[in-house]
Specification:
The chain contains 16 helices and 18 strands. The protein is of the alpha+beta class and 598 residues long. A hairpin with a 2-residue loop joins strand 4 and strand 5. Helix 12 packs across helix 13. About 4% of the residues have low confidence.
Amino acid sequence: MRRRYVDRAARYAGQPWPQLLASDWVRFFVDGNRAGYESKYGALRRRLGDETVAWCLHPDDTALLTDLIDGVMLVCEQMAWQLPAHNNYVRDAPQLPWPDMQRPVLDLFACETGAQLASILYACGDRLPAAVRAIVRQRLRERIIQPYLNDHFWWMGDGDEPMCNWTAWCTQNVLATVLMSDAADCDERTQLAAIAKACRSLDCFLKDYGDDGGCVEGAGYWHEAAVCLSGCLTILDGVAPEVFEPLRHEPKIVNMCTYALKMLARGGWCFNFSDCAPRLGRMGVREYRYARAVGDGAMTSYAASDWWRSLDEADATGLTARTNVMYQLWEAQEASAMRRIALERRPDSGKNGRRLPEGWFPSTGVAVLRDDRLDVAVKAGCNGASHSHNDTGNVIVYRDGQPVLIDLGVGTYTRKTFSPERYDIWTMQSSWHNLPDFDGVMQGASAECRAGNVRVVGVDDGIDGGGSAAGDNAGVAIGTVAADLTHAWPRAARLRRYSRSIRLDRGAHELVVRDDAQGRYDRARMHWIMAYRPEPLPGEPGALAVGGARVALYADGVPVRWVVESVPLEDDQLRRNWGARIWRVTVDFQESCELRIR
């Protein structure tokens, strides 16, 4: 780790700092592009974080300190710290074209920037010139502390409005800013006011989680939701451990931690419902500390080992990677312990035949079933939630660590992604989520579009409040999930009844997905989404080879013809996840459709 930080600092030496220009800001309002501004934003803050830690390792390096000061002042001189895509004061309202410097917006990245600058002051102390420290403190008061205490942003919660990852993520970073008193220069009265407001917000955040710990926004947002909640508790533990430490053992907090392990699949994949990528992202010190605090050994071991594996990979360049100095200092504190656990315990991640834990999350309608070859997840919840797609009934399948039925996830965020036109984006629509349409009518986007009469049998949910991350379903041969999906479609679909059942025969290593429908529609058309080109199996009507799996298709009880559509992926994010193209297999049926995977 020491070498990595020193090498990063050496690569930055003599390179110009990224400059966030007014034209970069305006581009979002011209063509909806978010990446231009946000890539520079992330690059600048990654460099700040890397150089801070590198300087902590070599505090006599005056050239490095001088360069770090340049970066700090660049951030202080920016006209705003929020993103253009977040420049509003009312939830889901149109973005304002220019920031109001007299009324700063507290979004995810403004709060993250505040925590980063406070952490830099905390780490560097009086080695920074007094004038620089004064400017940073002034910016923190103007752009973080005063707006937080004197204004109300939607993510702070009002008791009724649904919250999302913003609440825990923003609150964590505001707490970090305010409680590093040497950095932010806050008196005790200000700190107590911030703690009280933060606790109210976190209560609003927790009200939207079921006791099962399921994340309604999907597994990809677990790091920014549940793990940032844990970050809040870590910070609060530091000032009042006797008050906040006992909360770690509340069943909901424990289950929110172990949720992530249940959403993984073999081969490094995950079940990526909603706006999520098919890889969960590496775990590190934050996830390790969370698991250790709730006392879950399997999750602690997995997080430490995943962090250890990450050290062999190329540096991450994601928008929020390495932009929080607090995380980097936590990592330095825990590196030896994580290394020891990773080398001693070497947990089985499920790659060599053992199953990862199963799960059933009634609060989100997500169930995870497994055998020694298949990892399966189904969503029997509702549409219309934060970051959700129109995908009630969707099923994701991996066999031996290879994708068979996939959820594409989300492409690169643009202005359209979080706008009234969101569900015009094809990756959000139900016909791209292993679901049928009826005379071309797809699912609706409201919370009323939901599964009913959900029945789950033979799935070990592992929810016992004791932090058990793994269950053993070896004695249960059949796992099933069934639901009535009639009301997931609008009336225009002319459905009388539509149901789906998923049956995993663990002894035969066979998954059966069956759909039954009745209505006044003329044609029902099922769409299966696959990452590999499906190849017909000679002499087996209705059978396809997809990767290493055998997939058999039936319509109204007989093997069927299908139509295979090769779909090129033009979006950069989708291409990174799945390659140059995916395939959609379409089957027409009248009353029943069945898919079998072995």
